[in-house]
Amino acid sequence: MEIDLEKPELKVVLPGDPINVTKKENIKLGPGLTQTQDSIICIKAGILNHTSVKNKWWVENNQRRYIPAEKESVIGTVTYKGGEFYRLDIGSAHQAILPILAFENANKKNRPNLNIGSLIYARISLANKDMEPELTCVNPESNKADGYGELKGGFVIKCSLRYCRRFFSGEIELISLLELLQKKKDFEMAIGMNGRIWITSTSIKDTIFCCNVIKGAENLNCSDINKVANSLGI
């Protein structure tokens, strides 16, 4: 089945479907797609998505197992502490490796001292199906942390991978919900593409409130998200 992507309506694709992309210049393939020679093939079932801003294509579905992809931000838990690297659970088939020098201004004498169970917000720097994914806490564009690093305090909620991608896609309703919530509660959050969202606020009560609001909007469509905000008195 060949997919005509010039039409705006949603397209359901299955593994093995060839994707007909007319403009292949600077194309970026996201989860669910792979390139073999000159052809682009779908490797999982879902809805084909495309953004013309960066000419990116990906397949969106409700899979539970996270498949690491380069340049994606994830939230992981430290499970192993070694002399040269840490191992983190990011919800994928294999644990990820975080080198001890993969932090801003880190060296052998000046490096973060993470413990087992620490939460880390990191960026995937290397992802290969035959290798363990590798993480970094430095933004390569600025050589700064830019929010990456250890997440202290707060609470982590688990949600679907699709829900996290909706935040990164700039969905207007979700962004508006966060803006309204920010006016009522002073909170911070970090969103991982691996289905984890970290939230912290000035008190435990406010943190729980923010978690309930954000978690409650997961299974709602765009038109109902604003109703959630109104029902909670935001």
TrEMBL record:
GO terms for molecular function: RNA binding. GO terms for biological process: CUT catabolic process; exonucleolytic trimming to generate mature 3'-end of 5.8S rRNA from tricistronic rRNA transcript (SSU-rRNA, 5.8S rRNA, LSU-rRNA); nuclear polyadenylation-dependent rRNA catabolic process; poly(A)-dependent snoRNA 3'-end processing; TRAMP-dependent tRNA surveillance pathway; U4 snRNA 3'-end processing. It is found in: Nucleus, Nucleolus. Coiled coil: none annotated. InterPro entries: Exosome_RNA_bind1/RRP40/RRP4, KH_dom_type_1, KH_dom_type_1_sf, NA-bd_OB-fold, Rrp40_N_euk, Rrp40_S1. Gene3D superfamilies: 2.40.50.100, K Homology domain, type 1, Nucleic acid-binding proteins. The keyword Calcium does not apply. Pfam families: KH_6 (PF15985), Rrp40_N (PF18311), RRP40_S1 (PF21262). Residues 27-65 form the Exosome complex exonuclease Rrp40 N-terminal domain. Keywords: Exosome, RNA-binding, rRNA processing. The keyword RNA-binding applies. One of its GO terms (cellular component) is cytoplasmic exosome (RNase complex). Residues 154-204 form the K Homology domain. Belongs to the RRP40 family. This is Ribosomal RNA-processing protein 40. It comes from Glomus cerebriforme.
